Amino acid sequence: MKMCVLRSLGAVLSGGALSLCFPPFHQTWLVWGWLWLLFPILWTARSKKQAFAFGYLAGFAFWAVNMKWILTVSWVGVIAIAAYLALYFGFFALFAATAGNPWRKNTPVARSIAQRFRECGRSLGFAALLGGFWCGLEWIRGWFLTGFGWNGLGVTFYDTLVLAQNAEFIGVIGLSFLPVFFSAVVVQVARRFYRHSMKEGAKFLYWDLATCLIVLMIALSVGTARLSLVHNEDVIKADILLVQQDIPQLAHQVTWTANEIIDGFIELTENKLSEIDEAAAKELIESQGAPTSIRRPDMVVWPETALLDRFYRQGQSQPMAGAPLEGALSYFRRLGQFVHLTGVVETDLETNESWNSILQITPENERATYRKQHRVLFGEYIPDIKILRQLYEHSAGVEYYDNIAAGKGNEGLSFMIRGEAVEMIPSICFEDTVPRQTRKFVKDIPQVIVNVTNDGWFQESEGAAQHFANARFRAIEIRRPMIRCANRGTTGIISVTGSTIDPVNHERRELIDENGSHFTRGTLLASVYIPRSPIRTLYSLYGDWFAVLGLVSAFLWLITVRIWPSYKSSH
After folding, report:
1. Integer distance in angstroms from the first to the last C-alpha of the chain?
2. Rounded to whole angstroms, how far apart are CA atoms 405 and 374?
3. Cα separation values, 272 from 141, 230, 240, 300, 568, Å
4. For 249, which DSSP code?
5. How far is the C-alpha of 294 from the C-alpha of 191, rounded, in Å?
6. Which strand (E) or helix (H) includes residue 219?
C-alpha cells in the first residue's frame, strides 16, 4: 500500500514537472526528464488497471496546472478538461506497461558482443514504439470530439527554434517523438548500467544511448541548416500596422460599447498614421529632399470580432453594417490606400445564420469575408442539450448566446501588396492551433497566414502566451509567415522560422509595453516577408504522416505481442 502511494505521488510529480515546461513557467528543459520518473513506475506496475491509474494521475496533474487559466471563466471547465485529457496519458501508460514495456521480460545481463547489440536494439525499438504511440495519441487528441491539440510535447520547443524547424517535415506533433524516445532510452540505459555495475563493474558501451544522441544531433543539424536557408528566398516585403485595444471582457460579454470600440480603433490607427507621416516629413527635410525610407502601411489589421455591430449580407452581395458603422468605416477608408482586415460577426439575412468572420476591405472598398470553420466548444457553440447550456451559464455567470455557424471551403482571401497578388491563409482565434486547418489552404503562390484573435475571455492569464506558443508552429510547418493581431495577448509578426525577430533589422516584432507585457493598448508597425515562390514542405503535402505511422506501428506491435498470441492460445 505504501509503495502504491509513493508511486502515485511520483506520477503526480511527473505530470507537474511537465506542466512547468509551458507558460507561465517556461522551464522547457524539463520535457527531456519528466518521463524519467514516470517510465519506471509504469514498467513495474503490477496490473493494467494500476498502470492506467498512474498515467491518468500524471495527466490530470499536468492538465490541471496547464489549463488553470480557464479558471477566469469557469472552475468546472478546468476540472472537466483535465479529467478528459488525462485519459490520453492513461492510454499511453497502459500501452507502456504492456506491449511497450521493455522490462516485461526479465532478460539476463548481456555478456557477449552479440548480446549487447541485441540489448541495445531492443532498447531502441521499444523507445521508438513509445515515441510513435505518444505522437499517435496527440494526433487523435487533435481531432477527436472536435479536437484539442494544444500543448503537446513538441510545443515545448517554441523557444528552441533549432529543433522546432523539423516541424516542416513531421509537424509539431512529430516533434513530440524526440523527448519520449530520448527518455525511454535513458531510463533503460540507467537500469542496465546499474545491473552491470552490480554484476561485474560498469565497463560496457551503450550504443543505444549513442544512437539516440546521434538522432538528436541530426535534428539539431537539420534545424540549423533550415534556419540559415529559408530566409534566402525572394520575398515580397509588406509593412503591416496591427492595432490592439486590450478591451476587458467577462467571458463573451464585452464591457465597452460599440461606439467606444470603433472610436478607439480609429483613434489608435489615425494617431499612428499621423506619427508615420510626421516621421517621413522629418526625414525628407533632413535628407534635403531625398526619397524617404518611411512608408505608410500596406495593411491595417484589427483583431477578432473587433466591431460589435453585425455585418449583413444577402446572397452574394457585399457585407454591410448599419449606417453609423458604415459612416465610421467610410471615414476610415479615407485615411490611406491600404488593405483593411478586421474581425466581425457576419449574418445572412436569408438564413439568419451568423459567423465569426474576417472582413477584408480593399482600397477600392471591395469587401470579402472568411468565415471561421473550427469552432470552439462552449465558446462558439454548445450541443442542443439543455443541461450543457445551464452548466455553462452557471459556471461562467453569463447568459449563453446562440451558436455560431461553421464556415466551409479552402479558399483564402486575395489582395494586392505593392502591385503583387498575395493570398491570405485566414485563421480566427484558436484556428491557428489546428495544423490541419492551416495546411488545407496551402498553394504554390505567395501566401501569408493572418490570424485575428481575442484571448480577452481569459483576462491577463497565461492562456494567451500558450496560445501564441502553439501558433508559432503553423509558420514553420508550411513555411508561410504569420500576421497575428489580438485584442488581449500577443500581437506580432512571425517569420517562416517561427521567430518574431525581423530577419533584416533584427527588431522584435511583438507589441509590448515598457514592462514587457503583451497586455497593453497600442499599435505595432512592422514588416512581413512573403516568399514569392514558396516551397511545399513535407508536412504541407502529407500532414501528420509521422504521427499516423507511429500509431499504426504501435497497433501492429500490440497485435503481434498481445492479441495474436492470446488468440492462438484460445484456439
Report:
1. 38
2. 10
3. 43, 32, 12, 11, 75
4. E
5. 63
6. helix 207-229
What interhelical angle do 207-229 and 113-141 show, nearest 10? 50
Q: Which residues contact 386 (CB under 8 A, 6 or more apart)?
A: none
User: Going by C-beta distance under 8 Å and a sequence separation of 6 or more, which residues neighbour residue 525?
Assistant: 239, 240, 241, 242, 272, 276, 297
CA atoms of 170 and 424, how far apart (whole Å): 24
Closest alpha carbon to 189 in 100, 127, 96, 111? 127
Q: What is the DSSP code (8-state) at residue 429?
A: G
Angle, nearest 10°, between helix axes 75-97 and 386-396?
110
**β-pair type (235-244, 253-254):** unpaired
Residue 256 neighbours by CB distance under 10 Å: 15
Looking at the chain, the number of H-run helices and the number of E-run strands are 17, 14
Q: Is 482 left (phi over 0), alpha (psi -120 to 50) or beta?
A: beta
**Beta strand 354-361 pairing with 311-313:** unpaired
For cell 469557469, the residue is 74
Per-residue pLDDT of the chain (571 residues; tens, 9 = 90+): 678 899 999 999 999 999 999 999 999 999 999 999 999 999 999 999 999 999 999 999 999 999 999 988 888 889 989 999 999 999 999 999 999 999 987 776 666 777 778 888 999 999 999 999 999 999 999 999 888 999 999 999 999 999 999 999 999 999 999 999 999 999 999 988 887 777 665 555 688 999 999 999 999 999 999 998 988 889 999 999 999 999 988 766 777 888 999 999 999 999 999 999 998 888 888 887 777 777 899 999 999 988 888 999 988 889 999 888 999 999 999 999 999 999 999 999 988 899 999 999 999 999 999 999 988 776 676 666 555 556 665 555 556 566 788 899 999 999 999 999 999 999 999 999 999 999 999 999 999 999 999 988 888 999 999 999 999 999 999 999 999 999 998 999 999 999 999 999 999 999 999 999 999 999 999 999 999 999 999 999 999 999 999 999 999 998 888 666 665 566 5
The model's pTM is 0.93
Calculate the alpha carbon distances from 319 to 191, 239, 316, 556 in Å: 66, 26, 9, 53
- Please enumerate in sequence order all residues whose Cβ is within 8 A of that of 175, keeping only pairs 6 or more positions apart, or say none: 152, 153, 154, 157, 163, 164, 166, 167
Q: What's the rounded Cα separation, in Å, for the pair 7 and 9?
A: 5
Following CA atoms 47, 48, 53, 58 in sequence, which dihedral angle do they give, to the nearest 10 degrees? 100
Return the SS3 of 252. Answer: coil
- Cell 506580432 locates to 492
